């Protein structure tokens, strides 16, 4: 039976975290990961029970993201339910109407074996209790588009909705008012599996929905600036026990066919990063990886109505593929212009260190841009530019001559803001590690804080 390994990390944004609330921030992160650990242990036990039924093993290999993705979105949803974060309940209010409009995105990376990436997102969304759950719901629904006769040709499920689009869609579908939804057996099965996200029940309460007193105070006094986007990164993969691997052999022809099935570049560099789940069975084939990442944000303070930020855009606020997964936070408009998440992913595929890869994007390409040099750094309560953070999980394997392959998983935290709250856990460590990293005022917006933690070595 394969060993199920996992690594999970979350962040509460790169911004200005009050030292007076440090204990509250730490407690929030610790309690969130404590719940996640319990869910992970249950899923691992469930996986082992299902593995004993040989007939479903192939399905287990291809559905790890469906098993574990809800845990990642539950982590972000728990952060959304806190008044300490700029996501969900205590999101920043808009400039003129003082209402809450949220962004969120979740993405599952594709594989070299041909499995397509998929993602779902909402932008400037209203009336959704947990934006990340709305994004996950859209991602799962949109996957029906590639499932043959599940969805009729006349109806394509959306990947992204903005404004009241998702609220209206959920309300109508829940009431059975969407007549063109096909009602075949498979659709009914999928509908039962995908629970509707919680929404505002009374249309007259939409303007006040999720508007918290703390957000009102920030809007009225504007004495805090919050760029913070919350996010989580997670990796889950299978590895063969060493004693089992000694009993397994492959012919030279089989080994040659396996190596020929994926590119030289992929064989040279095996790296998986941030915000997600990764699965690698014992043979290490390229189609066995899976990655997931998610982000959620209430947007920048005093934003215009209808403004969509980086947290709603795959490839910008978050990105995942067969090699990496990244979660970004910071000044949304500048991150959007820099395509930061995908650029970090591309840098991490190169044969360079994780620090250099992230530095190339955050400092060389982001901070050093001339159009970002007009920020005000003297006043910590001002709205400076050049504020960005990234949380990345990277996974490397040794050369293919090693049997079983040795795995190294590292957590990378980098930011140019005043502070960034990060927490992580792994299957190789019973402890939950929480910290709020800080840097001096003179470095804000100019230099990058960086920390790399070796999470597990198998």
TrEMBL record:
<protein>
    <submittedName>
        <fullName>Uncharacterized protein</fullName>
    </submittedName>
</protein>
<dbReference type="GO" id="GO:0004298">
    <property type="term" value="F:threonine-type endopeptidase activity"/>
</dbReference>
<dbReference type="GO" id="GO:0051604">
    <property type="term" value="P:protein maturation"/>
</dbReference>
<dbReference type="GO" id="GO:0005737">
    <property type="term" value="C:cytoplasm"/>
</dbReference>
<dbReference type="Pfam" id="PF01112">
    <property type="entry name" value="Asparaginase_2"/>
</dbReference>
<dbReference type="InterPro" id="IPR000246">
    <property type="entry name" value="Peptidase_T2"/>
</dbReference>
<dbReference type="InterPro" id="IPR029055">
    <property type="entry name" value="Ntn_hydrolases_N"/>
</dbReference>
